[in-house]
């Protein structure tokens, strides 16, 4: 099968187009013929070697964390899916590889594709949707009447997070540039801060939840917009000891995580707020709940650009540049 492979870690390293053997299927997996694959910042971070401690992959590696396609083979223990089903998923860690013609996905991580979406739209959803669900529903337990600050509202995570937060009944603040104000407002943002001319710390206060996706300086400032008892959830780090425990990291890796997050945890505690790191996990049942919201028209995908499969490296570079409105997708079929 055709695939794009990472042969060695390295900053902005080019993935090589290669012919690879079709992946072997485990008993609890289905083989999905990839029609479209979402492109995420995590792909370039893995390529650049940023997650070597957390995710010790063996190279060569096929990247790609989002898939929409058709079931072409079913493992003997699979009960919920059959040949020909149109599906979408975020494959599990260590089973990623959607920048290829075929990818195996665990039954427990798979869901039927929303009926009203194209394959490209569906491929844009799983990773960001599950990230937001696990941050706002699971960790933050965001409730009606609460205030949430979602950074980078016009990005892939931001466009989905604004819509889900509004559905949950929260007041939503976000940051974006002047050119994207209409977009984030159309998704439901109540308060929009132009990050080029305003400092969100001067505008926002007494928030219940912050979803942080930016750098350390932004993380630090985010503490100061929270009220006592508020929650700061970061998807861009630093990882905390609870996360190390959750993934069963070796002792020295947990120690590194403890040291990396010591400062922000200490400052959060002194302000009476909680800090936690989120690295999302594949989850088919959550994806099915998300599908219901999409089918009901509560949430719509925002796709910036669709690249042909041959331009996967260009798609990665475009995402890393940080200017995409919503998601970027590569199309195989």
From TrEMBL:
Keywords (A to Z) from UniProt: Oxidoreductase
Keyword NADP included in the entry's annotation: no
SUPFAM superfamilies cross-referenced by the UniProt entry: GroES-like (SSF50129), NAD(P)-binding Rossmann-fold domains (SSF51735)
Family matches, as Gene3D superfamilies: Medium-chain alcohol dehydrogenases, catalytic domain (3.90.180.10), NAD(P)-binding Rossmann-like Domain (3.40.50.720)
Residues in Enoyl reductase (ER) domain copies: 10-330
UniProt keyword Oxidoreductase, yes or no: yes
Superkingdom as given in the UniProt entry: Bacteria
Gene Ontology MF terms in the entry: alcohol dehydrogenase (NAD+) activity
SMART domains assigned to the protein according to its UniProt record, in alphabetical order: PKS_ER
Entry EC no(s): 1.1.1.1
Alphabetized PANTHER family for the sequence: ALCOHOL DEHYDROGENASE RELATED (PTHR11695), RETICULON-4-INTERACTING PROTEIN 1, MITOCHONDRIAL (PTHR11695:SF294)
Name this protein carries in UniProt: Alcohol dehydrogenase
Organism the protein comes from: Rhodoferax ferrireducens
Organismal lineage: Bacteria, Pseudomonadati, Pseudomonadota, Betaproteobacteria, Burkholderiales
């Amino acid at each position: 099968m055709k695939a794009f492979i990472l042969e060695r870690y390295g900053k902005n390293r080019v993935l090589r187009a290669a012919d690879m053997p079709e992946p072997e299927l485990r008993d609890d997996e289905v083989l999905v013929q990839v029609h479209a694959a979402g492109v995420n910042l995590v792909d370039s971070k893995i390529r650049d070697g940023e997650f070597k401690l957390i995710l010790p992959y063996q190279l060569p590696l096929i990247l790609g964390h989002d898939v929409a396609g058709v079931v072409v083979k079913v493992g003997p223990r699979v009960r919920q899916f059959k040949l020909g089903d149109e599906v979408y998923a975020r494959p599990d860690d260590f089973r990623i590889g959607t920048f290829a013609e075929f990818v195996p996905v665990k039954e427990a991580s798979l869901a039927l594709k929303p009926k009203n979406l194209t394959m490209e739209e569906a491929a844009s959803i799983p990773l960001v949707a599950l990230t937001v669900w696990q941050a706002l529903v699971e960790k933050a337990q965001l409730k009606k009447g609460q205030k949430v600050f979602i950074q980078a509202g016009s990005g892939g995570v931001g466009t989905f997070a604004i819509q889900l937060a509004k559905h949950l009944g929260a007041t939503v603040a976000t940051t974006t540039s002047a050119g994207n104000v209409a977009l984030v407002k159309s998704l439901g943002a109540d308060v929009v801060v132009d990050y080029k001319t305003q400092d969100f710390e001067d505008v926002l206060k007494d928030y219940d939840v912050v979803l942080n996706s930016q750098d350390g300086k932004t993380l630090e400032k985010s503490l100061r917009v929270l009220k006592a008892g508020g929650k700061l959830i970061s998807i861009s780090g630093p990882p905390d000891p609870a996360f190390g425990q959750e993934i069963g990291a070796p002792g020295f890796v947990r120690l590194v995580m403890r040291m990396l997050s010591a400062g922000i945890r200490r400052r959060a505690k002194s302000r009476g707020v909680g800090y936690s790191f989120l690295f999302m996990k594949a989850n088919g049942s959550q994806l099915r709940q998300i599908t219901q919201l999409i089918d009901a028209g509560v949430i719509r995908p925002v796709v910036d650009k669709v690249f042909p499969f041959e331009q996967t490296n260009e798609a990665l570079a475009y995402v890393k540049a940080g200017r995409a409105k919503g998601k970027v997708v590569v199309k195989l079929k």
